[in-house]
Amino acid sequence: MTSATLRHSVWILRGNPLTAVAAAGVTLFVLIAIFGPWIVPYDPVVSNVSEALLPPSAAHLAGTDQLGRDVFSRLVIAARLDLAIAVSAVGISFAIGAVVGAFCGYAGGRLDRAVGRFVDVMMAFPLFVLAMAMVAALGNRIENIVIATAIINLPFYIRFARAEVNVRRNVGWVEAARACGESHFSVVLRFLLPNILPAMAVQISLNLGWAILNAAGLSFIGLGVKPPTPEWGIMVAEGARFISTGRWWLVAFPGLALMMAVLCFNLLGDGMRDILDPRMRT
After folding, report:
1. Quick one: average pLDDT of 255-260?
2. pLDDT of residue 6
3. Beta bridge partners of 70
4. What is the pLDDT of residue 11?
5. Is there a contact between 175 and 117 (Cβ–Cβ < 8 Å)?
6. Rounded to whole angstroms, how far apart are CA atoms 47 and 184?
7. Buried-exposed string 149-188: b where 16+ CB fall within 10 A, e elsewhere
8. CB of 208 within 8 A of CB of 85?
9. What is this structure's pTM?
Protein backbone atom coordinates (compact mmCIF):
# COMPACT_ATOMS: atom_id res chain seq x y z
CA MET A 1 0.00 0.00 0.00
CA THR A 2 1.47 3.34 -1.07
CA SER A 3 1.65 6.31 1.28
CA ALA A 4 -0.96 8.14 -0.82
CA THR A 5 -3.36 5.22 -0.58
CA LEU A 6 -2.74 4.95 3.15
CA ARG A 7 -3.44 8.66 3.66
CA HIS A 8 -6.59 8.38 1.58
CA SER A 9 -7.73 5.35 3.61
CA VAL A 10 -7.16 7.20 6.88
CA TRP A 11 -9.09 10.19 5.52
CA ILE A 12 -12.03 7.94 4.56
CA LEU A 13 -12.01 6.22 7.96
CA ARG A 14 -11.95 9.54 9.80
CA GLY A 15 -14.91 10.78 7.79
CA ASN A 16 -16.82 7.51 8.14
CA PRO A 17 -16.36 6.05 11.65
CA LEU A 18 -18.74 3.18 10.84
CA THR A 19 -16.16 1.77 8.43
CA ALA A 20 -13.52 1.81 11.17
CA VAL A 21 -15.94 0.12 13.56
CA ALA A 22 -16.76 -2.49 10.90
CA ALA A 23 -13.07 -3.18 10.27
CA ALA A 24 -12.54 -3.61 14.02
CA GLY A 25 -15.56 -5.92 14.19
CA VAL A 26 -14.33 -8.09 11.32
CA THR A 27 -10.89 -8.27 12.93
CA LEU A 28 -12.49 -9.33 16.22
CA PHE A 29 -14.50 -12.09 14.54
CA VAL A 30 -11.38 -13.37 12.78
CA LEU A 31 -9.41 -13.42 16.03
CA ILE A 32 -12.26 -15.24 17.78
CA ALA A 33 -12.36 -17.80 14.97
CA ILE A 34 -8.59 -18.38 15.20
CA PHE A 35 -8.16 -18.47 18.97
CA GLY A 36 -11.66 -19.65 19.94
CA PRO A 37 -10.74 -23.14 21.17
CA TRP A 38 -8.25 -21.63 23.62
CA ILE A 39 -10.54 -18.98 25.12
CA VAL A 40 -13.79 -20.89 25.70
CA PRO A 41 -14.45 -21.79 29.34
CA TYR A 42 -16.36 -25.03 28.61
CA ASP A 43 -16.45 -27.82 26.06
CA PRO A 44 -19.14 -26.68 23.57
CA VAL A 45 -20.56 -30.16 22.92
CA VAL A 46 -20.51 -31.70 26.40
CA SER A 47 -23.96 -31.86 28.02
CA ASN A 48 -24.73 -31.20 31.68
CA VAL A 49 -28.48 -31.68 32.15
CA SER A 50 -28.35 -30.53 35.77
CA GLU A 51 -27.46 -27.03 34.50
CA ALA A 52 -29.92 -26.90 31.61
CA LEU A 53 -31.58 -23.59 30.65
CA LEU A 54 -29.70 -21.44 33.15
CA PRO A 55 -29.92 -17.68 32.46
CA PRO A 56 -26.77 -15.58 31.86
CA SER A 57 -24.58 -15.38 34.94
CA ALA A 58 -20.96 -15.03 36.00
CA ALA A 59 -20.47 -18.78 35.53
CA HIS A 60 -22.19 -18.88 32.12
CA LEU A 61 -21.93 -15.48 30.42
CA ALA A 62 -24.59 -16.29 27.84
CA GLY A 63 -26.51 -18.91 29.82
CA THR A 64 -26.92 -22.58 28.98
CA ASP A 65 -29.11 -24.40 26.48
CA GLN A 66 -31.62 -27.21 26.90
CA LEU A 67 -28.81 -29.77 27.30
CA GLY A 68 -26.79 -27.70 29.75
CA ARG A 69 -24.15 -26.69 27.21
CA ASP A 70 -22.52 -23.30 27.66
CA VAL A 71 -23.99 -20.92 25.05
CA PHE A 72 -20.98 -18.58 25.07
CA SER A 73 -18.57 -21.45 24.31
CA ARG A 74 -20.79 -22.62 21.46
CA LEU A 75 -21.00 -19.08 20.06
CA VAL A 76 -17.23 -18.71 19.99
CA ILE A 77 -16.59 -22.10 18.38
CA ALA A 78 -19.40 -21.53 15.85
CA ALA A 79 -17.63 -18.38 14.63
CA ARG A 80 -14.77 -20.50 13.25
CA LEU A 81 -17.11 -22.80 11.33
CA ASP A 82 -19.30 -20.04 9.89
CA LEU A 83 -16.34 -17.91 8.83
CA ALA A 84 -14.56 -20.94 7.36
CA ILE A 85 -17.61 -21.83 5.26
CA ALA A 86 -18.01 -18.22 4.08
CA VAL A 87 -14.32 -17.67 3.26
CA SER A 88 -14.01 -21.03 1.45
CA ALA A 89 -17.17 -20.52 -0.60
CA VAL A 90 -16.41 -16.92 -1.54
CA GLY A 91 -12.79 -17.79 -2.33
CA ILE A 92 -13.85 -20.55 -4.73
CA SER A 93 -16.53 -18.47 -6.44
CA PHE A 94 -14.19 -15.48 -6.73
CA ALA A 95 -11.32 -17.50 -8.23
CA ILE A 96 -13.52 -19.24 -10.80
CA GLY A 97 -15.91 -16.37 -11.51
CA ALA A 98 -13.21 -13.72 -11.94
CA VAL A 99 -11.22 -15.83 -14.42
CA VAL A 100 -14.25 -17.00 -16.41
CA GLY A 101 -15.79 -13.54 -16.49
CA ALA A 102 -12.50 -11.89 -17.46
CA PHE A 103 -11.89 -14.24 -20.39
CA CYS A 104 -15.49 -13.91 -21.57
CA GLY A 105 -15.37 -10.12 -21.38
CA TYR A 106 -12.06 -10.07 -23.25
CA ALA A 107 -13.09 -12.52 -25.98
CA GLY A 108 -16.63 -11.23 -26.56
CA GLY A 109 -18.66 -12.91 -29.29
CA ARG A 110 -20.67 -16.07 -28.87
CA LEU A 111 -18.85 -17.30 -25.79
CA ASP A 112 -19.53 -14.05 -23.98
CA ARG A 113 -23.20 -14.06 -24.94
CA ALA A 114 -23.62 -17.73 -23.95
CA VAL A 115 -22.05 -17.24 -20.53
CA GLY A 116 -24.08 -14.06 -20.08
CA ARG A 117 -27.34 -15.90 -20.75
CA PHE A 118 -26.30 -18.70 -18.37
CA VAL A 119 -25.63 -16.17 -15.62
CA ASP A 120 -28.99 -14.49 -16.29
CA VAL A 121 -30.77 -17.84 -15.95
CA MET A 122 -29.03 -18.55 -12.64
CA MET A 123 -29.92 -15.16 -11.22
CA ALA A 124 -33.54 -15.58 -12.30
CA PHE A 125 -33.91 -18.18 -9.53
CA PRO A 126 -34.04 -17.20 -5.85
CA LEU A 127 -30.44 -18.00 -4.94
CA PHE A 128 -31.20 -19.29 -1.45
CA VAL A 129 -33.78 -21.70 -2.88
CA LEU A 130 -31.17 -22.85 -5.40
CA ALA A 131 -28.73 -23.48 -2.54
CA MET A 132 -31.42 -25.43 -0.68
CA ALA A 133 -31.99 -27.64 -3.72
CA MET A 134 -28.29 -28.35 -4.20
CA VAL A 135 -27.64 -29.19 -0.54
CA ALA A 136 -30.76 -31.39 -0.42
CA ALA A 137 -29.53 -33.27 -3.50
CA LEU A 138 -25.87 -33.56 -2.45
CA GLY A 139 -26.41 -34.09 1.29
CA ASN A 140 -26.00 -31.67 4.16
CA ARG A 141 -22.27 -32.04 4.72
CA ILE A 142 -20.04 -29.02 5.26
CA GLU A 143 -18.25 -29.46 1.93
CA ASN A 144 -21.57 -29.53 0.09
CA ILE A 145 -22.68 -26.34 1.85
CA VAL A 146 -19.45 -24.71 0.67
CA ILE A 147 -20.00 -25.93 -2.90
CA ALA A 148 -23.61 -24.74 -2.99
CA THR A 149 -22.71 -21.35 -1.54
CA ALA A 150 -19.86 -20.99 -4.03
CA ILE A 151 -22.08 -21.83 -6.99
CA ILE A 152 -24.77 -19.31 -6.12
CA ASN A 153 -22.06 -16.63 -5.69
CA LEU A 154 -20.54 -17.30 -9.12
CA PRO A 155 -22.89 -15.01 -11.11
CA PHE A 156 -21.82 -11.94 -9.15
CA TYR A 157 -18.14 -12.35 -10.02
CA ILE A 158 -18.71 -13.46 -13.61
CA ARG A 159 -20.91 -10.45 -14.29
CA PHE A 160 -18.58 -8.03 -12.56
CA ALA A 161 -15.43 -9.32 -14.28
CA ARG A 162 -17.13 -9.41 -17.71
CA ALA A 163 -18.27 -5.81 -17.41
CA GLU A 164 -14.96 -4.48 -16.08
CA VAL A 165 -12.79 -6.28 -18.64
CA ASN A 166 -15.15 -5.44 -21.48
CA VAL A 167 -14.60 -1.70 -21.00
CA ARG A 168 -10.80 -2.12 -20.68
CA ARG A 169 -9.95 -4.65 -23.41
CA ASN A 170 -9.23 -2.00 -26.05
CA VAL A 171 -7.58 0.70 -23.93
CA GLY A 172 -4.09 1.90 -24.74
CA TRP A 173 -2.11 -0.14 -22.25
CA VAL A 174 -3.82 -3.37 -23.34
CA GLU A 175 -3.08 -2.59 -27.00
CA ALA A 176 0.53 -1.86 -26.01
CA ALA A 177 0.81 -5.24 -24.24
CA ARG A 178 -0.50 -7.04 -27.33
CA ALA A 179 1.86 -5.04 -29.55
CA CYS A 180 4.78 -6.18 -27.38
CA GLY A 181 3.96 -9.80 -28.16
CA GLU A 182 1.91 -10.75 -25.09
CA SER A 183 -0.57 -13.57 -25.73
CA HIS A 184 -4.27 -13.09 -25.11
CA PHE A 185 -3.96 -15.45 -22.12
CA SER A 186 -1.15 -13.35 -20.67
CA VAL A 187 -2.98 -10.07 -21.30
CA VAL A 188 -5.97 -11.26 -19.27
CA LEU A 189 -4.04 -12.80 -16.39
CA ARG A 190 -1.15 -10.34 -16.10
CA PHE A 191 -2.79 -7.05 -17.01
CA LEU A 192 -6.58 -7.07 -16.95
CA LEU A 193 -7.29 -9.24 -13.90
CA PRO A 194 -4.92 -7.39 -11.54
CA ASN A 195 -6.43 -4.12 -12.72
CA ILE A 196 -9.97 -5.08 -11.67
CA LEU A 197 -9.09 -6.86 -8.41
CA PRO A 198 -9.33 -3.75 -6.17
CA ALA A 199 -12.88 -3.09 -7.35
CA MET A 200 -13.78 -6.77 -6.87
CA ALA A 201 -12.58 -6.59 -3.25
CA VAL A 202 -15.76 -4.66 -2.47
CA GLN A 203 -17.89 -7.49 -3.86
CA ILE A 204 -15.89 -10.03 -1.86
CA SER A 205 -16.59 -8.24 1.42
CA LEU A 206 -20.32 -8.00 0.67
CA ASN A 207 -20.51 -11.65 -0.37
CA LEU A 208 -18.76 -12.82 2.80
CA GLY A 209 -21.59 -11.43 4.90
CA TRP A 210 -24.19 -12.94 2.60
CA ALA A 211 -22.39 -16.32 2.64
CA ILE A 212 -22.46 -16.39 6.45
CA LEU A 213 -26.19 -15.65 6.37
CA ASN A 214 -26.74 -18.31 3.73
CA ALA A 215 -24.93 -20.99 5.75
CA ALA A 216 -26.85 -20.07 8.89
CA GLY A 217 -30.12 -20.07 6.96
CA LEU A 218 -29.50 -23.56 5.63
CA SER A 219 -28.71 -24.79 9.14
CA PHE A 220 -31.80 -23.08 10.52
CA ILE A 221 -34.11 -25.06 8.20
CA GLY A 222 -32.25 -28.33 8.81
CA LEU A 223 -30.25 -28.50 5.55
CA GLY A 224 -26.97 -27.17 6.88
CA VAL A 225 -24.52 -28.29 9.53
CA LYS A 226 -25.76 -31.20 11.63
CA PRO A 227 -26.14 -31.01 15.43
CA PRO A 228 -24.41 -31.13 17.86
CA THR A 229 -21.83 -29.12 15.92
CA PRO A 230 -21.94 -25.52 17.16
CA GLU A 231 -23.28 -23.24 14.41
CA TRP A 232 -25.18 -19.97 14.69
CA GLY A 233 -28.11 -21.06 12.53
CA ILE A 234 -28.57 -24.29 14.47
CA MET A 235 -28.43 -22.41 17.77
CA VAL A 236 -31.15 -20.00 16.63
CA ALA A 237 -33.32 -22.90 15.44
CA GLU A 238 -32.92 -24.83 18.68
CA GLY A 239 -33.53 -21.77 20.84
CA ALA A 240 -36.65 -20.71 18.94
CA ARG A 241 -38.60 -23.46 20.69
CA PHE A 242 -37.97 -21.84 24.07
CA ILE A 243 -38.84 -18.21 23.30
CA SER A 244 -42.39 -18.62 24.57
CA THR A 245 -41.05 -19.84 27.93
CA GLY A 246 -38.87 -16.75 28.42
CA ARG A 247 -35.48 -18.32 27.60
CA TRP A 248 -34.57 -15.37 25.42
CA TRP A 249 -30.81 -15.87 25.60
CA LEU A 250 -30.96 -19.04 23.49
CA VAL A 251 -31.96 -16.98 20.44
CA ALA A 252 -30.72 -13.50 21.34
CA PHE A 253 -27.00 -14.23 21.55
CA PRO A 254 -26.54 -16.36 18.39
CA GLY A 255 -28.89 -14.04 16.51
CA LEU A 256 -26.89 -11.02 17.65
CA ALA A 257 -23.60 -12.68 16.63
CA LEU A 258 -25.01 -13.48 13.20
CA MET A 259 -26.40 -9.97 12.73
CA MET A 260 -23.15 -8.29 13.80
CA ALA A 261 -21.00 -10.46 11.51
CA VAL A 262 -23.16 -9.74 8.45
CA LEU A 263 -23.43 -6.04 9.33
CA CYS A 264 -19.67 -5.65 9.80
CA PHE A 265 -18.85 -7.25 6.45
CA ASN A 266 -21.46 -5.14 4.66
CA LEU A 267 -20.27 -1.89 6.26
CA LEU A 268 -16.67 -2.83 5.50
CA GLY A 269 -17.64 -3.35 1.86
CA ASP A 270 -19.17 0.13 1.71
CA GLY A 271 -16.01 1.60 3.20
CA MET A 272 -13.75 -0.28 0.79
CA ARG A 273 -15.82 1.07 -2.09
CA ASP A 274 -15.12 4.62 -0.90
CA ILE A 275 -11.43 3.88 -0.42
CA LEU A 276 -11.01 2.29 -3.86
CA ASP A 277 -13.24 4.72 -5.77
CA PRO A 278 -10.95 7.11 -7.70
CA ARG A 279 -13.68 9.77 -7.68
CA MET A 280 -13.19 10.07 -3.90
CA ARG A 281 -9.51 11.05 -4.38
CA THR A 282 -10.00 14.81 -4.40
Report:
1. 94
2. 63
3. 64
4. 65
5. no
6. 60
7. bbbbbbbbbbbbbbebbbebbeeeebeebeeeebeeeebb
8. no
9. 0.87
